[in-house]
Write a sequence for this structure.
């Protein structure tokens, strides 16, 4: 009976070679095919004379939200939870599931926040949504990639979509400049990344993370049948450092952060929101896998570098943001600062560190959703009837007078970003410090604490501008769109009450940290 | 539901009710806020009545041990395997925290009463801010978990920042709010690291468990200094006291009342609750530091007070002097000193708010706090003048008023430990009398200045009612302090000699 069963399994496996793989990849397949379908639908409909060349952005953004939600449902209910797919190219486990669902939900949130922006902007750029869908699906592949080739390909698909998205406003100088800068620096960082990968491949002869791990753990590489070369070689370290540099470029950590303020400022606000909120979690996910799995035996080398990057990001983020006057640029520096804290969790490389990092990421996403869903609301001047949006931080001045609830939410988000106690931001920061102290990284904890006080200055400045200063021009907010209001309400609720009942967050992040580390 | 949970719940219920009242119904809003805070006060009196003063353990504990209150097995296990699970909302009251809780619940209705007419903008938000602040402060005094203590200790910043910034009086208020926020924050983030370090060593943050644990001597000193950085800002000790006069002067009257009555007590309460029992070696080691800083503070701020011309600044600086008497008592390592300092904190929590209320009364009428415009209030506002002289006498600890037994015990305690310190601190008595009487002289006596002061209305009934409980409290403690000392005696002994 036992034999029979196993025989039957073998038969079915060999006859349907990819059956289980396709089953496991169903969410990704669904998302990509939705993207293609929407592209065809958009192209055909928008050029149709009989329909009078309709504007499709609003329409397609609802479809995109639906697609993202369905995909997250598919992932949540996926029948295969723990597997290596497509001949060791992709891997799925608890960790990837969590990261994918977070990516999908946060990008759905980003699109729904910018619905009104899309509607009032009136340019018929429905391909934005298609590009966002492709970027998200590349994030899904990125999260579950298990070798260097799929990692690189997924990152490239994501970056390519991002380059186009950044330069989307063709008639704006800032946007084209942002796109160009982003493209050049992004391509450069991808070059670093692929050079690192090729060094590793040339040295070890394997591409898969797990194979790499085995080779490095054994301390030797099979080199022409003679097992004599140790992994302490400079070439392996060099490759790893190149990969790390590429990673730091992509997440805009401090020595490699130059592109991010310009790009964040130049890109249209919904795209900035998307850049700020979604890609970090996927990038962190895959590079955690690379560094904790493949390069775990080179831990001392990369830990030093990550500690340096973390310190530099905290300092740059805290100090450079002090003198910003434009809100998006300020948020860019603030996100550099947050990346510093995230990297502190990365540097710990313990279960606690990973857990702290994932809690921080979730809180970070919620805080940024709160901020950007306010920035994406329409504001109306009393004098001219244009619809200017908040660009300079002094534009916030009227908010507390005309829309106190919005101002309250914004200031709660700011207090949370500054890490003031009863809010979620404090919880995540304290947990990062806790993990850092646990891994003997007291320096990171002390510097982190000091920079969080410094960063309080500029977060408080935003609150001060809203509440205490009298505006020069009075604006009034147009009615806050329902989707933005919903996003705001959810994030506000989370930020305030997270501390009251943190157990579920703990449970989930602990589970995924174990899934990654074991 | 234990009493302490009820005390915490009632203001929150008030906040919930206020959220559903439209903001133009200001009278209803004020009534709801006043009634809920009065109800809180009455329930907190029950805490005292039912208090068992022969025991040093925490009473009215609620027995919640899991972070969520859920009994679900997986959740509890997950929580216990992860690290901040030790965060438990365990509440309890002992002889030390009992009076701080009652003081808080007493002062909040007074705060709402004092701003009955003079707060005209954002009334609803104002009431909500005060009730939230009340809950946070009550939680600080009743929580039995070190990290939760830190969290609530810090979270007081947010409502206070808003109260100073929004309802403060002048342009300078923004600077004051900033200073208040950043000084306190910078002091206390180091304490966060210290708390995490404690957690690493002991694996728990529960106060009662921590009282039983031991730290090495070097580590005690490091932890003590980190805690000190936070508490010294709140107390305030002398180099970091700059935020206090600014914050006081710019805050609305009710804000000053809370600031002087409760928030200054947070630092000394922290010393009492954590520094003294957790780090006994470091306490003895650093006693000279505390003594030196306190004496400098007493003499320096008393002398500074003499030359101030802003009414609120005078009272603010005198608060600094009194709080430094408290720190001298706390570190005298004997029960007299500690009991005296607790009594002095309670007394200061009555007297200093009363003086701020007096300034508020004057400010409401004449819209200035500069002393040179005032003179001869005794002629135009006799009832006010009577109360002002009474509170000034209480401020310089005349026998028969509440400050006297407290200060007396502090001196006894300090004298037993170090007579020179007692001598230096006693000069503060003379200097205190100097500035207080000088102030009284300029304000109450003399000829009134009709060029500046042209409305004469004495205290009205609302103002009298807000002063009445303070007068009663001051006289009661001054004449018969036994009920207070009895209730705190066992806890103080336990605090000192438990190890």
């Amino acid at each position: 009976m036992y034999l029979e069963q196993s025989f039957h399994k073998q038969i079915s496996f060999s006859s349907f070679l990819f059956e289980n793989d396709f089953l496991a990849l169903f969410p990704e397949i669904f998302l990509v095919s939705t993207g293609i379908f929407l592209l065809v639908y958009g192209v055909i409909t928008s050029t149709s004379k009989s329909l009078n060349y309709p504007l499709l952005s609003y329409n397609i953004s609802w479809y995109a939200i639906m697609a993202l939600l369905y995909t997250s449902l598919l992932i949540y209910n996926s029948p295969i939870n723990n597997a290596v797919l497509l001949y060791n190219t992709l891997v799925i486990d608890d960790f990837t599931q969590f990261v994918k669902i977070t990516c999908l939900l946060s990008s759905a949130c980003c699109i729904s926040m910018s619905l009104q922006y899309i509607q009032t902007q009136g340019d018929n750029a429905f391909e934005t949504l298609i590009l966002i869908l492709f970027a998200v699906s590349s994030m899904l592949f990125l999260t579950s990639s298990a070798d260097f080739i799929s990692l690189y390909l997924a990152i490239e698909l994501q970056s390519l979509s991002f380059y186009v998205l950044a330069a989307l406003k063709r008639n704006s100088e800032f946007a084209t400049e942002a796109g160009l800068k982003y493209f050049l620096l992004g391509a450069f960082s991808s070059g670093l990344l692929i050079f690192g990968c090729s060094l590793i491949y040339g040295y070890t002869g394997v591409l898969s993370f797990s194979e790499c791990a085995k080779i490095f753990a054994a301390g030797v590489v099979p080199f022409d049948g003679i097992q004599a070369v140790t992994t302490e070689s400079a070439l392996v370290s060099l490759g790893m450092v190149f990969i790390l540099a590429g990673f730091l470029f992509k997440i805009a950590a401090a020595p490699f952060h130059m592109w991010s303020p310009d790009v964040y400022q130049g890109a249209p606000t919904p795209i900035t929101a998307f850049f700020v909120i979604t890609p970090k979690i996927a990038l962190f996910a895959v590079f955690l896998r690379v560094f904790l799995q493949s390069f775990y035996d080179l831990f001392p080398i990369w830990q030093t570098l990550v500690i340096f990057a973390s310190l530099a990001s905290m300092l740059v983020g805290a100090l450079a943001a002090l003198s910003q006057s434009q809100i998006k640029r300020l948020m860019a520096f603030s996100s550099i600062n947050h990346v510093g804290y995230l990297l502190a969790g990365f540097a710990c490389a313990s279960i606690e560190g990973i857990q702290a990092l994932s809690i921080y990421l979730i809180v970070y996403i919620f805080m940024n959703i709160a901020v950007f869903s306010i920035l994406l609301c329409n504001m109306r001047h009393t004098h001219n009837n244009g619809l200017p949006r908040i660009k300079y931080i002094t534009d916030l001045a009227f908010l507390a007078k005309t829309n106190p609830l919005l101002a309250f939410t914004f200031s709660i988000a700011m207090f949370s970003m500054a890490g003031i106690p009863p809010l979620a931001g404090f919880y995540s920061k304290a947990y990062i410090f806790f993990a850092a102290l646990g891994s003997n990284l007291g320096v990171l904890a002390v510097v982190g604490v000091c920079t969080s006080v410094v960063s309080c200055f500029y977060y408080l400045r935003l609150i001060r501008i809203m509440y205490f200063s009298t505006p020069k021009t009075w604006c009034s907010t147009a009615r806050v769109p329902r989707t933005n209001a919903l996003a705001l309400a959810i994030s506000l609720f989370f930020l305030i009450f997270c501390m009251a009942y943190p157990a579920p967050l703990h449970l989930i992040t602990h589970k995924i940290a174990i899934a990654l580390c074991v | 539901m234990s009493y302490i949970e009820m005390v915490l719940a009632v203001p929150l219920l008030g906040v919930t009710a206020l959220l559903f009242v439209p903001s133009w119904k200001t009278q209803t809003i004020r009534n709801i806020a006043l009634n809920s805070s009065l109800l809180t006060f009455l329930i907190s009196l029950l805490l005292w009545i039912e208090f068992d003063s022969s025991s040093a353990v925490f009473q009215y504990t609620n027995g919640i041990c899991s972070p969520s209150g859920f009994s679900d097995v997986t959740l509890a296990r997950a929580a216990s395997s992860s690290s901040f699970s030790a965060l438990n909302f365990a509440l309890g009251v002992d002889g030390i925290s009992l009076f701080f809780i009652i003081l808080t619940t007493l002062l909040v209705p007074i705060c709402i009463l004092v701003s009955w007419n003079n707060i005209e903008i954002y009334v609803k938000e104002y009431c909500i801010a005060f009730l939230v602040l009340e809950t946070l402060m009550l939680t600080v005094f009743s929580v039995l978990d070190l990290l939760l203590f830190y969290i609530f200790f810090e979270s007081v910043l947010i409502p206070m920042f808003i109260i100073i910034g929004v309802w403060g009086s002048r342009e300078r208020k923004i600077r004051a709010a900033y200073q208040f926020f950043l000084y306190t924050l910078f002091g206390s983030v180091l304490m966060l690291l210290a708390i995490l370090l404690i957690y690493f060593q002991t694996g728990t943050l529960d106060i009662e468990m921590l009282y039983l644990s031991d730290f090495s001597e070097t580590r005690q000193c490091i932890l003590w200094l980190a805690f000190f950085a936070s508490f010294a800002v709140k107390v305030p000790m002398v180099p970091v006291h700059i935020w206090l006069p600014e914050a006081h002067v710019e805050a609305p009257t009710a804000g000053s009342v809370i600031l002087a009555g409760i928030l200054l007590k947070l630092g000394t309460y922290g010393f009492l609750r954590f520094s003294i029992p957790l780090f006994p070696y470091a306490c003895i080691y650093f006693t000279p530091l505390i003594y030196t800083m306190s004496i400098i503070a007493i003499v320096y701020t008393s002398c500074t007070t003499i030359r101030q011309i802003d009414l609120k600044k005078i009272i603010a600086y005198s608060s600094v002097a009194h709080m430094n008497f408290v720190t001298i008592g706390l570190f005298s390592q004997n029960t007299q000193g500690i009991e005296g300092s607790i009594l002095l904190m309670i007394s200061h929590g009555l007297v200093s708010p009363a003086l701020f209320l007096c300034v508020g009364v004057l400010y409401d009428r004449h819209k200035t706090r500069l002393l040179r415009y005032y003179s001869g209030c005794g002629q135009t506002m006799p009832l006010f003048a009577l109360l002002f002289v009474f509170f000034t006498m209480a401020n310089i600890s005349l026998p028969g008023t509440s400050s006297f037994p407290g200060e007396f015990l502090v001196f006894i305690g300090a004298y037993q430990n170090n007579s020179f310190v007692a001598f230096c601190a006693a000069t503060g008595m003379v200097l205190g009398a100097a500035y207080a009487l000088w102030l009284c002289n300029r304000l109450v006596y003399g000829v009134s200045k009709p060029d500046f002061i042209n409305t004469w209305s004495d205290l009205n009934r609302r103002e009298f009612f807000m002063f009445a409980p303070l007068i009663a409290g001051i006289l009661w403690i001054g004449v018969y302090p036994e009920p207070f000392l009895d209730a705190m005696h066992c806890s103080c002994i336990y605090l000192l000699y438990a190890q």
In short: The longest helix of chain B spans residues 335-366. The radius of gyration of chain B is 22 Å. Chain B touches chain A at residues 67-68, 70, 74-75, 78-79, 81-85, 87, 122, 125, 136, 147, 150-155, 157-158, 161-162, 165-166, 173-174, 177-178, 181-182, 185-186, 189-190, 192-193, 196-197, 199-200 (CB under 8 Å).
